Amino acid sequence: PVLVESLLVFTMVLSVHAVVWDRFSWCAVALAVQAFYVQFKWDRLLQLGGAVFQFRGAANSGLLPASMVMPLLGVVMKERCRAAGIVYFERFGIVVASTGMLLALFLSVLAVGITKPVPTNTCILTGIAGSVIIYTMKHSLTVSEVIEVLEVLLIFVYLSMILLYLLPRCFTPGEALLVLGGVSFVLNQLIKRSLNVVEGRGDPIDFFLLVAVVGVVLLGLFFTVLFIFMDSGTWISSMFFHMMTAVLGLGVIMPWLYRLIQRNPLFWLLQFLFQTQTRLYLLVYWTFLAASACGMVFYQNAKRSSESKKHQASTITRKYFHFIVVATYVPGLIYDRQLLYVAAVLCLAVFIFLEYVRYFRIKPFGQTLRNLLSLFLDERDSGPLILTHIYLLLGMSLPVWLFPRSCAPKGTLPGAGALVPYSGVLAVGVGDTIASVFGSTMGEIKWPGTKKTFEGTMTAIFAQIIAVALILIFDSSVNLNSSYAWILASVSLVSLLEAYTTQIDNLLLPLYLQIMLMA
């Protein structure tokens, strides 16, 4: 399975390389080759228990698929913005690609350094790939961009040491690279923009995303350190938690956002949410869907208490939430993408806050949340945190957040790029859901070395093609310009990756589909 997963990733890397064909795509190919070899060193370290931190079990290291996400995303973003003539975001794409390559190289060097005996061939390969990448960066980046890349690396190193120690068994090395690398990049962008505020420059919704992500991460770090010294399950601790959340929210996060958008954040948010009648209708519709999702959680828990304490939610029951998410995102993508962007940020902040309440057993809802959510646990939730629902939200939202709006003057990219915001809906909402439902109920032919079935994968590909046809009918802004063969190939590769990867598919699949569609 690891070899097939690597082959699929290589195919996507070479597809992007064939389209872009510049020095950065050559660097991506070099990085992929060395990550393939280093991945086996990480796998060996995980099996022998010598990987410094405790990583998630029942999965391989996932270094190759995770290493290629940021570099490929930066390369395709650079190419799209160069074609649109937007120099600022072309340079931004180069910084994203360079940062991704440097973070992946750091993890590779770490694995090689702690492997005993020292793997000579892998060391040489990592040295050659690193030399090629650093030489390219030296001749492509300005001094300020080099400093920016090194800042992200520094934040990533410290954040990894803190969070991987505090949260054992929550991530594989690849997932840690993706999640913590993304958080490090966002934190660095927020610091950079806070120091260089220019009135009227930058979209408020982008600043809202940066502040929300950094705010909830800092909140979690603060309370994790605090509750080392006091019991988090008492009423006094719970009152202190709520009080300090309000203080940090109103005393740090709000003023920070005010400095960036130059107006009162609460008034701006209320004005934004209720600006048009369409937004009101969408908010009412989303509230109804959220209530039905909560109703499903309560119903399944009532069913468990009446049947058996050992009862766990079935795959089909868990995929019900995927259908709700699709029903949430599709109207937002068609009618108002900016509202969907902001609503997804708010939802992410709420999800992470509720996870803090559950994890720290904050009264009055902490223990209740633990009991309710334990029903929906699967083998990937082996650590102290429950992250699958947050990964689902991220997988659906990242294509919307990472869509290069400034490089798409008419609000959409030409050709297959028009489907980029729908990457999460197609890969996770439709593909992964249909594959799981049909595979678990009717699948008989297993893919070699996995539990996934041939029937599930084929049905997922077919369902995504039907979904693309429906998007063409209902969303008038999508014009594919006869790029159907590329879309079919992209959907097929990502569906096969879903069958073979042991990483969090909710996070990985939408990003790879977005990269392929943007290319």
Automatic annotation (TrEMBL):
CC per GO annotation: endoplasmic reticulum membrane
One annotated GO molecular function: dolichol kinase activity
Gene Ontology biological process terms in this record: dolichyl monophosphate biosynthetic process
Enzyme nomenclature, EC number: 2.7.1.108
Protein topology in the membrane: Multi-pass membrane protein
Transmembrane segments: 7-37, 57-76, 88-112, 118-137, 149-167, 207-228, 240-258, 278-299, 320-335, 341-361, 382-402, 422-442, 454-474, 486-513
Enzyme class: transferase
Recorded superkingdom: Eukaryota
Keywords annotated in UniProt: Endoplasmic reticulum, Kinase, Membrane, Transferase, Transmembrane, Transmembrane helix
Subcellular location as annotated: Endoplasmic reticulum membrane
Family statement drawn from the similarity comment of this UniProt entry: Belongs to the polyprenol kinase family.
Name the UniProt record assigns to this protein: dolichol kinase
Origin species: Promerops cafer
